[in-house]
Design goal:
By secondary structure, this protein is mainly α. Helix content is about 50%, strand content about 5%. It folds into three domains: about 120 residues, Rossmann fold; about 190 residues, Serine Threonine Protein Phosphatase 5, Tetratricopeptide repeat (Alpha Horseshoe), CATH 1.25.40.80; about 160 residues, DNA Cyclobutane Dipyrimidine Photolyase, subunit A, domain 3 (Orthogonal Bundle), CATH 1.10.579.10. The structure holds flavin-adenine dinucleotide, ligand DLZ and iron/sulfur cluster. Ligand DLZ binds next to helix 1 and helix 2.
């Protein structure tokens, strides 16, 4: 063997940099199911099943090409405990001259890889992950130039220029960079949603589903009706389906929520992109082509592209810039334990019960559920950032630390003091009522401001503002809200405080 190429579970792309220069006659590709990766947090069953099945299918596809693959299964006799053992076993078996890996999505694993370079008997080369548009050092240089703090929008414009997506020369197509103002419509009650394609499990997936139920049966979540793509071909079909059927209305209803319909017009491609079954830039080019062909409007296509080359790249940049240490931040000194209903979905707050129940059933919730329902609650209730991070890393099938952590620490909890997003995404019940039909089925009254029947978001919002008013006084984007609070009567302020204390005191 000349080169041993180690591919991790979220690097399942034929064009991954660790496969560049592959010599089919001499090299071996190592892929390993290992207990430590399934247990460092107790991932949702669906996430483990998706990854193991995708890994097995990827190995098959490489073999079909004539590549030698050393595939370590979790359930074999001498299965490897962790990445390090899997690699040293494979070095002993294949006696390679060198090992090549692609940089991972987590600082924890990067530290492991750097260790390998020291401790393994052959050189270990770590290559850049070329699936991302903005390498960490370019992001760091951009961030350094931003003298008054980071703004995603400016970063996004750089990425538009860098990729040429939706550009005419150096100008944005349509004369504006951003059409977000058009992308906040509530869903009309009678609006039909497009039926989704299902990807029924094949024999490989059935095997994996049995393995996951047997080994990780106690983990959060359901495996019922598993129908997510696990091959690059099926991922491509899911992308085709999205571009044709959901993209045209993706923009309009991007922020809408409807009970019983977690997907709406969302792509549900995140787990496929993050694991390597789809290329992010390719997804954007496909969306752009639909716009150029007149098959999807600009607000939808721009919105979709912004999520991918804007937000997705931006959060990754912040992650690598701020690690290690980003996960420990707690600017708002939030210390409350995660309530049990995050695992049981049993709460009388209907919006939360729906979003958490869908998360349990599908390992998915769309962005506004994650941000403005669950995230908003975590922020207002002052939940411990470490526990909230772990929850988000466990429950979503697209969750890896590089993307989960900045979304939790920076976007929802403001635990980084406003580094990633200058203003906390806090909202009262009125926002959820406007954007969803959840409140109709809720035991709380979204219109009531105080007392045991009032929507808890209503007083938790003001209690949150009150608790942090000194800090927020320094944030000009919070000026109007603070003024509204200061104008309240002393009785009203006391009522907010006691409603919040009663509610929070009863959380278990
Ligand atoms: P669509 O709405 O169809 O969006 C298209 C694509 O844009 C997504 O597939 C995703 O790749 C990308 N994207 C959109 N928003 C973001 C964002 N804020 N950050 C990064 N990428 C984005 N996304 C993850 O992939 N993994 C996570 O672990 C994750 N954790 C999150 C935690 C919180 C608290 C919040 C608020 C958001 C999180 N997101 C995460 C971002 C976003 O919610 C999901 O990417 C999205 O819901 C996935 O569904 P979709 O593919 O249907 O998205
Ligand atoms: C999430 C995950 C799980 C559950 N299992 C494995 C595994 O057995 N083998 C593997 O290579 N990768 C797995 N992964 C994905 C890794 O955790 C991921 O590659 C690292 O966290 C780096 O992002
Ligand atoms: Fe959620 Fe409040 Fe509406 Fe109930 S009333 S669904 S708690 S926003």
């Amino acid at each position: 063997t000349r080169t041993l190429r180690f591919i991790l579970g979220d690097q399942l792309s034929r064009s991954i940099s660790s496969l560049d220069g592959l010599d089919k006659d001499a090299d071996v590709v190592l892929i390993a199911e290992v207990m430590e990766e399934a247990l460092y947090v107790r991932h949702h069953k669906r996430k483990i099943a998706f990854l193991f099945s995708a890994m097995r299918h990827f190995a098959e596809a490489l073999r079909a090409e004539g590549v030698t693959v050393d595939y370590r299964r979790l359930d074999e006799e001498d299965g490897a405990r962790d990445f390090t053992t899997a690699l040293s076993d494979a070095i002993a078996r294949h006696q390679p001259e060198q090992v090549i890996v692609t940089e991972p999505g987590e600082y924890r694993v990067l530290a492991m890889m750097r260790d390998w370079a020291e401790t393994m008997p052959v050189p270990v080369l770590i290559r850049e992950d070329s699936r991302f548009i903005c390498p960490p050092d370019i992001f760091a240089r951009w961030a350094e130039r931003q003298k008054s703090g980071l703004t995603m929008e400016y970063f996004y414009r750089e990425m538009r220029r860098r990729t040429g997506l939706l550009m005419e020369g150096d100008k944005p197509v349509g004369g504006a960079w951003n059409f977000d103002a058009e992308n906040r419509k509530p869903l009309p009650a009678r609006m039909d949603l497009p039926a989704r394609p299902a990807f029924a499990p094949d024999a490989v997936s059935e095997d994996v589903l049995r393995l996951v139920e047997a080994r990780f049966g106690e983990h959060f979540g359901s495996l019922a009706d598993f129908a997510y793509p696990v091959t690059a071909e099926d991922a491509e079909r899911a992308l085709d389906w999205f571009i044709e059927n959901a993209l045209p209305l993706y923009g309009d209803y991007q922020d809408a929520m409807r009970q019983g319909a977690p997907l709406l017009f969302h792509s549900n491609l995140s787990a496929l992109i993050n694991a390597g079954l789809l290329d992010p830039l390719d997804c954007c080019r496909r969306a752009e082509a639909a716009f150029r062909a007149g098959a999807a409007p600009l607000n939808a296509v721009e919105g979709f592209i912004r999520q991918i080359i804007g937000w997705r790249e931006y959060v990754r940049g912040v992650y690598w810039l701020k690690m290690p240490g980003y996960g420990e931040l707690n600017a708002l000194e939030a210390r409350r334990e995660l309530p049990w209903f995050f695992w049981s979905a049993e709460t009388e707050m209907n919006c939360l019960a729906q979003a958490i129940g869908e998360t349990r059933d599908h390992a998915y919730a769309h962005h506004i559920q994650r941000l403005m329902v669950i995230g908003n609650f975590a922020l207002l209730a002052g939940l411990d950032p470490r526990q909230v991070q772990e929850w988000y890393l466990v429950v979503y099938h697209d969750a890896y630390e590089w993307v989960e952590m900045p979304n939790v620490v920076g976007m929802i909890l403001h635990a980084d003091g406003g580094y990633l997003a200058s203003k906390p995404y806090a909202a009262s019940g009125a926002y959820i009522d406007r954007m969803s039909d959840y409140c109709r089925g809720c035991r709380y009254d979204v219109k009531a401001k105080a007392g045991p029947d009032a929507c808890p978001f209503n007083y938790l919002y003001w209690d949150f503002i009150a608790r942090h008013r000194e800090r927020f006084a320094r944030n000009h984007r919070m000026g109007v809200v603070l003024k509204n609070y200061e104008r309240m009567s002393a009785e009203r302020k006391a009522e907010i405080e006691s409603d919040a204390a009663r509610f929070l005191g009863a959380l278990r």
